[in-house]
Specification:
Distance between the termini: 49 Å
Number of strands: 10
Structural class: alpha+beta
Helix content: 40-55%
Largest sheet: 7 strands, antiparallel
Order of helices and strands: HHHHHHHHHHEEEEEEEEEEH
Number of helices: 11
Shape: elongated
């Protein structure tokens, strides 16, 4: 609720300042609504996509992951208001006119940019509609994940919509600012992917079937660290002076448990708050959720982890 209140306040503030500056400079109120909501939707989607990689570089951004769903759904409605006013004012309600007016495919400054915005809005509609856990259960993990990965296509399409659209009659300062935002978003994702790949390639030292995971001193108390053991991603947890290891994948929506922290004795997934005990991998009563555990050995400051879940080893025996 606190985040939602802050978000609503910032939205009102942005739109109020934008409209005031636009109208005072000679613009019409209708255009202020269209461009105000449109620019806000672009900035909100940029920020929403940046939360994930930022949380991998700084723990202070992890708390925003809990609110990413609300932010994404709100972004869709902001974009929808922009689209409705654009359709009514520029196209007089003619949806077909979106594809037949304003554009020449052979000229960059007259390229039809509106279909790009429509594609972005339709993807955000599908994501907002299926953001509830009920849809996650009905669609299945794989299909739901693939659907929501389309957000990168939506962002690319939105960038093309802005680049071929409103920026064509703007000064170079606005164009550079727009390109800087887009470049920052994609750069954050590339840097985060490089960091994850570097972790995945970290050599593992074998010791009696165990593999070197990390140093105990690298993990603060009540925190976790994602490491790669063989082909598995494992969350190594430091809790009450002891080291535990669980699978890094939350069964809810495949959230990264290794980026979570211990709250009230349970490792909490940073995405939606699902919790699991570090020693047993079980959710708090009365929930029956459970994740795989891994056997751990600590030698001085070095942490070694068995590359197979404890439950899998028990089944083989």
């Amino acid at each position: 609720m606190r985040f939602d209140a802050w978000m609503a306040g910032l939205i009102v503030l942005y739109l109020g300042v934008f409209a005031g500056l636009w109208v005072s400079s000679g613009g019409t109120p209708e255009t202020a609504i269209i461009r105000g909501f449109g620019s806000l939707a672009f900035l909100m989607l940029s920020f929403t996509l940046s939360i994930g990689p930022l949380s991998r570089f700084s723990p202070r951004f992890k708390r925003l992951i809990f609110n990413r769903r609300h932010l994404g759904v709100t972004t869709f409605f902001v974009g929808l208001i922009h689209a409705v006013f654009s359709l009514l004012i520029y196209f007089e309600g003619d949806l077909f006119g979106v594809f037949t007016t304003n554009g020449a495919y052979g000229q960059a400054h007259r390229f039809p940019f509106v279909p790009f915005g429509l594609l972005s809005l339709l993807i955000l509609l599908a994501m907002a509609t299926t953001s509830h856990d009920w849809w996650f259960a009905k669609l299945g993990v794989r299909f739901w994940k693939r659907l929501h990965m389309l957000v990168y296509l939506a962002y690319t399409s939105l960038a093309l919509h802005v680049g071929f659209g409103v920026l064509q009659d703007q000064a170079w300062g606005w164009r550079i600012g727009f390109l800087a935002v887009v470049a920052a978003v994609f750069s954050l994702h590339l840097l985060a992917a490089y960091r994850e790949r570097k972790i995945d390639r970290t050599p593992s030292l074998r010791e009696d079937g165990f593999r070197f995971a990390c140093l105990k001193s690298e993990i603060p108390e009540n925190q976790a660290k994602a490491v790669t053991i063989g082909e598995e991603r494992v969350a190594v947890i430091h809790y009450q002076g002891e080291i535990y290891a669980l699978t890094n994948v939350c069964p809810h929506q495949n959230g990264p448990l290794g980026e979570g922290k211990v709250v009230n004795g349970y490792l909490e997934c940073p995405w939606h708050g699902f919790q699991f005990s570090p020693d047993q991998g079980k959710g708090p009563p009365p929930y029956c959720d459970k994740v795989d555990r891994y056997e751990v050995r600590v030698d001085g400051d070095q942490v070694f982890v068995q590359p197979f879940p404890i439950e899998a080893q028990a089944d083989e025996e």
